[in-house]
């Protein structure tokens, strides 16, 4: 592994952000997250939850202000380092054309088939995969177009489990998944969240009650910040 392992401490310092086509979403946003904590982001649709985690993933750059990881501006880390330390399951999950196995393996080129299956089992993806005629060798199609959003999220989740990153982002990871699978996933998520910094975005209370901090977001601002018991 060519990159240093980060502790996963995150800080937004006075971050403002405006989409190229759109209004300002964040204005002087400040947030400090200790290493190993689980942060749940809740709030109305359009309040800025995905924007906040997408900035951590560096899919977008702050218009002003800085994002620090382990006390250093995140531009100081190479893409490989950032992505080696970061796992995410996005609201619109991105896969590349290739097999399911390739998509789970992703950056972990050394992973064995057995490790890939173990990760898929932890992520509750194994069952649907083995029901496909070609199993793990099933091509996912252009951008994963042959799979449902829920299935793509499960594969992304398996990828994150395999990568074992210091920082994990789950953006409504269960939104497109049926209730039965969701119950199983809840348990998997709890297991996977421990020992790493995590941002979790979910509408369902069950996913967020165990978070170390719940941030209630409204119009890009933190309106409340505390544990489930406190709020
Ligand atoms: P949801 O609960 O529906 O996922 P959210 O809290 O994740 O909502 P964001 O996706 O962060 O909300 O959106 C915040 C604001 O930014 C909204 O007004 C939205 O319309 C706008 N927005 C989001 N993505 C883009 C984009 N790619 N380009 C322009 N505007 C965007
Ligand atoms: Mg969102």
Instruction: Give me the CATH architecture, please.
Output: 3-Layer(aba) Sandwich
What percent of residues are in strands? 25-35%
Tally of separate helices: 8
The low-confidence parts are none
CATH class: Alpha Beta
Helicity range of the residues? 25-40%
Average per-residue pLDDT, rounded, comes to 91
Sheet with most strands: 6 strands, mixed
General description of the model:
This protein has 231 residues and is of the alpha/beta class. Helix content is 30%, strand content 25%. The chain contains eight helices and ten strands. The protein has a six-stranded mixed beta sheet, sandwiched between helices. A hairpin with a 5-residue loop joins strand 1 and strand 2. The longest helix is centred in the C-terminal third of the chain and has 15 residues, at 149-163. Adenosine-5'-triphosphate binds at residues 19, 21-22, 25, 43, 45-51, 91. Adenosine-5'-triphosphate is lined by residues 19, 21-22, 25, 43, 45-51, 91.
Sum this structure up briefly.
This protein has about 230 residues and is α/β, with parallel strands linked by helices. It has one domain: Rossmann fold (3-Layer(aba) Sandwich).
Question: What brief labels describe this structure?
Answer:
30% helix, binds magnesium ion, binds adenosine-5'-triphosphate, Rossmann fold, alpha/beta, 231 residues, six-stranded mixed beta sheet
SSE topology sketch:
Blueprint: E1 10-18, E2 24-33, E3 38-42, H1 49-56, E4 64-69, E5 72-73, H2 79-84, E6 86-89, H3 100-105, H4 113-122, H5 126-131, H6 149-163, E7 167-171, H7 179-193, E8 197-201, H8 205-208, E9 213-218, E10 221-226
Parallel strand pairs: 3-8, 3-9, 6-7, 7-8
Antiparallel strand pairs: 1-2, 1-4, 4-5, 9-10
Residues 49-50, 91, 171 line the site of magnesium ion (MG).
């Amino acid at each position: 592994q060519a990159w240093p392992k980060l502790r996963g401490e995150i800080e937004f310092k006075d971050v403002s952000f405006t989409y190229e086509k759109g209004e300002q979403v964040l204005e002087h946003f400040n947030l400090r997250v200790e290493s190993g904590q689980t942060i749940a982001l809740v709030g109305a649709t359009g309040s800025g939850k995905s924007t906040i985690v997408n900035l951590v993933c560096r899919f977008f750059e702050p218009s002003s202000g800085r994002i620090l990881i382990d006390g250093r501006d995140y531009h100081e880390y190479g893409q490989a380092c950032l992505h080696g330390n970061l796992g995410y399951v996005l609201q619109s999950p991105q896969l590349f054309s290739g097999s399911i196995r390739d998509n789970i393996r992703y950056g972990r080129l050394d992973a064995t088939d057995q490790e890939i299956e173990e990760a898929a089992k932890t992520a509750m993806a194994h069952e649907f995969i083995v029901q496909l005629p070609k199993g793990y060798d099933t091509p996912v199609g252009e951008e994963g177009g042959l799979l449902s959003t829920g299935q793509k999220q499960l594969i992304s989740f398996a990828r994150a489990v395999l990568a074992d990153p210091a920082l994990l982002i789950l953006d409504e990871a269960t939104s497109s998944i049926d209730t039965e699978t969701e119950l199983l996933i809840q348990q998997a998520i709890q297991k996977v969240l421990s020992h790493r910094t995590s941002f979790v975005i979910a509408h369902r209370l069950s996913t967020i009650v165990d978070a170390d901090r719940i941030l209630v977001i409204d119009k890009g601002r933190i309106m409340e910040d505390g544990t489930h018991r406190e709020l």
